[in-house]
Specification:
With 535 residues, the protein is mainly alpha-helical. It is 39% helix and 7% strand. It contains 20 helices and 10 strands. The radius of gyration is 23 Å and the shape is globular. It is found in: Cell outer membrane. InterPro entries: SusD-like_N, SusD_RagB_dom, TPR-like_helical_dom_sf. Keywords: Cell outer membrane, Membrane, Signal.
Length: 535
Amino acid sequence: MKNFRYIWSIPVLMALLFFGCEDILDKQPPGKLSESSFWQTENDALAGIAAVYDALETPRAQMGWGHMGFFDSFTPIANCRGGSLKAFSAGTYDASTSVARHLWENSYKGVVRANDFLANVDRIDMDADLKTRLTGEARFLRAMYYYLLVEHFGDVPLFETVPTVDDALAERAPRAKVIELMKQDIQFAIDNLESSYSGDDLGRATIGSATALRVKLALLEKDWGTAADAAEQIMGMGYDLLPNYQDVFSVDQENSVEVIFDIQHIFMSDAEPGGRVEKLYAPRGATASGWSTIQPNLYLVEKFEVIDPNPTYVQEDARIPTEIYDYFEGRDPRMDYTIIRPGAHFIEQSGDKLHPYEMTNRNNTQTGFWARKYVIEGPIGVTLPNNSPLNWIIFRYSDILLNYLEAVAERDGIGAVTQTVLDQTINKVRARASDQLPLYTAGAITMEDIRDERIRELALEGWLYSDMKRWQTLETEIYHPKTGVGLKITNETIELGTSPVYPRVFESPKNYLMPIPQDERDVNPNLTQNTGYPE
């Protein structure tokens, strides 16, 4: 279980000094170690592909696939507690922001490792079928890393081999050219990967993983036909929803029938730390000793429908007024599986606590809410700071179902969406969440309904920033009356806030792309800047 990414050898660790730690546009040619003493055996190939997977996990608090949940803080649903993430969502950043720099560096780290593998694996005398499959994994992962680059930066330098000194002055390639390579990589992966794995190979890229990336790339291009076709293919691959929503994010249900691709984490391993997302999401009193970096707000809460207008509850703390209980109780249960709100319980390392007054360092959240999704409750031993056993899911089945519905609605028109499609997608997702949620009927659903369902289902998972840019709703929703607004909590009482914690800014067309990092432009004067950012 989970071991394939972490089978290291001394040559691989030394090779990563060449291919992972230096500035991508200031690379030196591969050293003699790689040429003379590595890429000799099948085990070298397995270790080499492990390094490509390992780049999915980003350093602590940095942007990349491993912390893709951060992207949701740039949308109306969540706030950042501070630092460069807050500056980004508040519009007070520039080309020197660490958000863009880390995303660029971590993505190119993965590209270079993939290219290094592809450049050398053919030198190894090994099983031909295994070699082809590993090549498919490397090409899938290269396309994954390029996805983040083209979505968030547009035109970027394109490397199909390990960069040399001459590449330090590479110009930005047209976005379309990078995407063309990505499509070739995805098709090769689909043609050569396995449909599933078991044992120590669990977590490797599959045909479903590559097809899910095809869905996301087609949505980025607004190629609705390709997105719908690819999603429909996944719907025939045997994936399904788990019966209970909360189980999707449970250690006991990892690698479930709902998971298409995730980042595998090893808990309490000397070879590799576990996941770091929990540290960034969790309350301070949680076993993960969280930083509360991402904080949900009232905008997100109000997306969860009231399904029981007269709920029954016990007012456990008189400082939580009945109007606050009435506001939160009786909503779509995904709310309580996603956030921690007043009147809810959370098991800290010291025991069961009632939010907010029993919670440790309750003022660490500026909105009055904490994330519950991806946070493990319980005593010390179930998880540790920066060492969570919980895998981070990148592609899951409910996401693809809703992508399929959106693509069909955009391709054919919302009025042409059939009841069959609704029942296969949004109604299936809602029925899993609660049998009290009303289902949609053909002719009575809107694009806003589809979009709101994605927010309810996928909040804090990182895809909503891409979604909202595609929908072009950030231009208006970022100024919504509830955006960035939380609770006003004093020692005596709680009330709904009326002012945002900090101003939110999304400037069109500027903010559809991030600035090219200034550090990269200092090294390479041939890198032009994106529109709207100072040259």
